[in-house]
Please model this.
Amino acid sequence: MSFKITANFHPTLRTVGGLDAARAWFQRVFGRPCRGPSKTFLTKGFPDNYCFTTMIQEVLFDTLDPLRFPSRIHPTPEVGAPPHLGMLAWYVDDHDALVRAFHRQGIRLLDPRGEVVEGDRAPAPTAPGVVTLTDAKQVGFDYEFFTVGNTPLHQAWGRELDPRFETGWRLPPVAPDDPLALECCAWHTLLSDKPERQRDFFVELLGGRMIHAAPNEALGTQSVYVALGDGVYELGRPVREGLAMNDWRRHLRGMDDCYHGITFKTADLHKARGHLRAEGVGLVVDEPDLIVTDAEDSVGVYWGFTTKLASGDPRGD
Model:
């Protein structure tokens, strides 16, 4: 494979008309600052108040209001649509090679305007860099691929948006004042009733490595875990009534698959549990080594907190 997924760029939470409330929630529950879009990298004509990012250990979490930024990529939703995880983006090192690999498999990619990418070259870069997106009709979900531009642009990108690009960045240790005592992201959970398609996408096309397979009794799924870039992804097939099945059935934005939640490893699950309860966040899973928040109380996301990494996670070797 001539391209490489180097890291998770960002998950995107779509919240219709709820950006200010979401910002307050992140600051209150995660205790972390929220930053608006970088003025340096705003494409001409884009609004400057349509999103914010929250750095949660190594996860750059993007929260976006599609009412403030309507486009073919983030179309204006129906009023009353619930907040939900609506996109997953990765950094890629060779965008032309990625385009060729997708086209060999007969999979379309879209440019930032929503137009189909033709030929064997990635689209021209925008101000931030090169962007392509999948067509959810083919692969089940909205995935984005991004390559930052030249070296000076990398440096500015790190200063203004993603601190992981700054020289010498390392995963920070658990902060003494972190109310959730977070160590790192344990895994992201995606749901599908077409597990073969999902595994082919993550493993055969993107180059991920399957590290574990087991039922997830808490969610009601048969799951496989894939190491890709700097992260681990749980690919779950709902197999019985329960938390995962209910979320997957919503088919938000008409997509087959569902980005269900994100689970973090914590150094103190008791502290995290107590903090969430004190902030009025309910738990739909409460086990000795895993808790999961109620999405209704947590900006539409099922946030998990665990004491363990997934079996086979290379970070635990």
